[in-house]
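TICKET: design request
STATUS: open
ATTACHED STRUCTURE:
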C-alpha cells in the first residue's frame, strides 16, 4: 500500500462490516474537489456507475442524503417526494463538514457523523457495482449497490431528471 492508499474511515467501516469493495485512487491537487465526471474518466469507469453524494435539507429542517450518477442532476420534486417532504434544497457548501464530517469532493454516504435518511437513485439497481466517494478527495470505493443500501439503510427511488 503506497502512502496515497491509506485506509479511510469509509474503508475501515466496510472492513468492519465485512462488505466487499475495491478501493480506487486518483491524482488531485491537495484539498481541491474534482468533479465526478472527471473522476470517472481518471478511473476509466463508466460515469453511469460512478455516483456522487448530495446532502439536502427538507422544509422540516431534516437532512437527507442522495446518491446519484455523476452525470445526472437531482430532481428536487422527485427527491422531496421520495423522502416525504414538501420541498428539499441543497445545503450550503460551507455547512457540509459541520453536518456530515466530510469536505466537498470527499463526501461519502458511508460514515457520516449521523445516519441520515438516504436515497440511492434507482438506476444503481441495474449495476453489479457502483463507485462512491471513499470519504476523502482522491479516494473512491466500488461496491455492490445492495451492500451500500443495506449498510446505510437506504431506499431506492427515481430522483434524477430525465
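STATUS: resolved
RESOLUTION: sequence designed for all positions
ATTACHED SEQUENCE:
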Amino acid at each position: 500500500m503506497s502512502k496515497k492508499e491509506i485506509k479511510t474511515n469509509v474503508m475501515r467501516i466496510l472492513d468492519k462490516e465485512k462488505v466487499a469493495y475495491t478501493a480506487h485512487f486518483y491524482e488531485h491537487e491537495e484539498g481541491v474537489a474534482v468533479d465526478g465526471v472527471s473522476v470517472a474518466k481518471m478511473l476509466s469507469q463508466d460515469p453511469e456507475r460512478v455516483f456522487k453524494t448530495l446532502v439536502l435539507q427538507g422544509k422540516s429542517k431534516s437532512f437527507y442524503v442522495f446518491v446519484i450518477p455523476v452525470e445526472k442532476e437531482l430532481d428536487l420534486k422527485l427527491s422531496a417526494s421520495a423522502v416525504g417532504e414538501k420541498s428539499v434544497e441543497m445545503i450550503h457548501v460551507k455547512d457540509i463538514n459541520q453536518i456530515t464530517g466530510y469536505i466537498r469532493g470527499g463526501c461519502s454516504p458511508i460514515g457520516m457523523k449521523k445516519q441520515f435518511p438516504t436515497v440511492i437513485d434507482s438506476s444503481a439497481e441495474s449495476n453489479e457495482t457502483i463507485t462512491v466517494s471513499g470519504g476523502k478527495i482522491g479516494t473512491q470505493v466500488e461496491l455492490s449497490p445492495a451492500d451500500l443500501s443495506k449498510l446505510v439503510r437506504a431506499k431506492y427511488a427515481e430522483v434524477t431528471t430525465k
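CLOSING REMARK: The mean pLDDT is 93. The helical segments are 9-16, 36-42, 76-82, 96-100, 145-151.
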